[in-house]
Amino acid sequence: MPAGLSDDQMTEFRDAFYLFDRLGDGRIEAKSVGPLARALGLNPTEYDVERVCGFKQDPTRRITFEQFIPMFLSLQEKKAVSTANDFHEGFKVFDKDGNGKISSIELKHILTKLGERLSEEEAESILNSLEDSDGMIKFDDMIKTIMS
After folding, report:
1. CB hemisphere CA count around 102 (13 angstroms)
2. Which tens digits make up the pLDDT trace of 81-122?
3. Which of 68, 72, 101, 119 has the greatest number of C-beta atoms within 10 Å?
4. Half-sphere exposure of 101 toward its Cβ, with a 13 Å CA cutoff?
5. Terminal CA-CA length for the chain
């Protein structure tokens, strides 16, 4: 048994793994590693998933449970715990006026065009509830939404 995983965890992981086994051959598609890791409580980026399993290089690759566990553990080690301060520091880059706010139009552009992109609908659903009457979003309100 891999270090750091209990028998109960291994059973939980195996059960979840086989829910993703669409062919019943004891393997899952490499592109399912990310969704499976998310189902098991992680929140890896697509970059990190690609790094551990290479699903973009070989889209037909299938992975056994024994291959998945080290991938999961690698993603778990990478798991970063972001603090409100980390987010606040990141938002400071966009705080041109030093008032703790960002234009909702600018933030929507950032969320839909940079990094791991959100869809227009996802961005709007987040931003609409945070926008003030001037079309601005307070960083603190955005951070509270992200962290909750």
Report:
1. 22
2. 556 777 778 788 888 888 989 888 988 898 898 877 889 998
3. 68
4. 14
5. 34
pTM here is: 0.55
Residue 101 phi, psi dihedral angles, 5° rounding: -130, 160
Cβ atoms within 10 Å of 21's Cβ, excluding its own? 17
Count of CB atoms situated within 10 Å of the CB of 7: 8
Residue whose C-alpha is closest to residue 53's, from 38, 68, 35: 68
Q: Residue 36 CB: number of other CB atoms within 10 A?
A: 21
Closest CA to 32 of 15, 43, 17: 17
Q: What are phi and psi of 54, to 5 degrees?
A: 65, 35
